[in-house]
Structure formats: C-alpha cells, structure tokens
Amino acid sequence: QVQLVESGGGLVQPGGSLRLSCAASGINTSIYTMGWYRQAPGKERELVATITRGGSTNYADSVKGRFTISRDNAKNTVYLQLVSLKPEDTTVYYCNAVHSLFPKFNYWGQGTQVTVSS
Asked: What is the mean pLDDT of residues 43-55?
C-alpha cells in the first residue's frame, strides 16, 4: 500500500518560514517525480514545485525565489522549504508522486494546512 504523509504545516506570520515534509512508503521515490501542489477552497489544485528523479526542479511563478523543493531518496522523503511567506500562500499543500516511466502510477498525500496570518 502506497502512502504519502505530509507534515510541517501550521500557522506562521507573514514573512515567516516553514518546512514541509512528505514521507513516502510503499514506493521507491528515487524513480518518481515528486511534487507539491496546493488547493484553496473553491479553486483548482495548482502546481507549486516538482523535482524529477534527476534533480531538475520546476516552480510556479508565484513561489520562485521563495520556495525550494528537495528530496532525500535514502529517506524516501521530499521537502518543501517555504520562506518569505505571504497571506496568499495560505491553503492546503499536497504531496504528489508520479512514476518516471509509468505516469499511471500517480499518488497523493492527504494534505497539510499552511496558514499565514498575523
């Protein structure tokens, strides 16, 4: 059984930082493209950042320069470092894993809430 478990969300003041973690089990993340997405109520889920098995990264324009995605294959974990947080970053963040060769193997975590407020 595949599980992606996010952690690290919470309440932070504007300008603050958080680090989200996504621990995977049941898959070998080294052969997956890992990503973070977010979805606000009533809106579509949007890409935040992805990192390929080779380490190439891609970011949404709205988070470039503020968020950093990284991976530790030995720990089967992917991270998202969030700095200079803004109130508009408030939403639920989801971890995603897509197999590099067989994209039908596509998994999601349950999400972690990030709230940026003073």
From this structure: 96
